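Q: Start with the shorter request: fold the first protein.
A: Done. Sequence, then structure:
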Amino acid sequence: MIAMMLASWLVSWRLKSKFQKYSQTPLSSGLSGREVAEMMLRDNGITDVRVISVAGKLTDHYNPADKTVNLSEYVYEARSAAAAAVAAHECGHAVQHATAYNFLKFRSAMVPALSIASRYMQWILLIGIFMLQTTPIPLAIGVGLFALTTLFSFITLPVEFDASRRALAWIDQRGIVTTQEHGMAKDALKWAAMTYVVAALGSLATLLYYASLLMGRRD
């Protein structure tokens, strides 16, 4: 778990440094993140999704509940390879939503159960550890809930990779980026995806730790 925490910090630092570097390179097409997003939505026949600006850095996301592509202030008006990549990636999620992409549907279906699990999971695990010598039931329930969150983390991976694949294919096809800018966009999205990979592995490592406690009690 310590190794995963260190890896998470390193990947996060690397992502921020890459984004900062590629944000300083002007996009040859001169399009802003907002314009890239709106163009990609139009090209995919999506007319019911709004592109809006949100505060923060690297806070970009697609909200399927209100159908909004939320671009951070560092992406919304920026005209760089990094901004184009992020904007197109978030629109990739909107395309997934519009086309009923299976992994996104599965992930969305898990959200209600995950919301309940996340609310009580830590308390149940804590109680389970304290009561481990008396009964393994609370810890077993906690492990089950944690397994659900770990599954969610791994289901997120194909969703993110597919959104990046769609984004890179579209910005190439549309001539949004040059060959050099494509490399920058691909690299930025790769490091963004790595944050999800590390998060999933970290969740798995934690799950195995709690599961080892439970199996040790049974032994």
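Q: Next, the second protein, separately.
A: Sequence, then structure:
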Amino acid sequence: MASTNSEFEFCGVNHLALVCKDMARTVEFYRDTLGMPLLKTLDLPGGRGQHFFFDIGNGDSLAFFWFPNAPEAVPGISAPEALPTRGNFMSAHGSMNHIAINVRADKFDEYYQRLVDKGVEVTPILNHDNSETQSSAEMNDDVYVRSVYFFDPDGVCLEFAAWTKVFDESDIAHDPVRADGTKAEGMITGRTPVPAE
């Protein structure tokens, strides 16, 4: 019989976030070749890149960042320099950016406080929404996931994440970016660019 965790009621992996060189090629492989449905697409504010989530079953996701100026993949560059809100969160192509562990939304605040009480250095709670900054200090009806980030002793970035809404078709709203920074217009949205006159 497996032992139980008396500290936190984990619900599996919320999402594993990796970094890709070409989001369109990533969509072609994971969605079109492997059949993973897209759950959520984001163009990051300020031209900082993209973030796409793929359904891997059981409520779990595989997510990819595309950063326009990310370094090429180099063995040993495997994690961000800093936590979100505290500095450079970018990592190299093919790296593992962070591991998000799924927790129940009704336990999120309790678990955040439990981390603090245990002396874990954590970020503020990030209520990810569809606003211009893509995060709110307070909960609102537009929040789709709540997050707190922290490092393990070896510098692996971890996240406790709690989904707060069910995704629908409106959450797939961004065409992916290719390695050269151009959008693959219409690949996901079906919208084609209007030719310049």
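Q: Describe the second briefly.
A: The CA atoms of residues 41 and 172 lie 5 Å apart. Helices lie at 23-33, 108-117.
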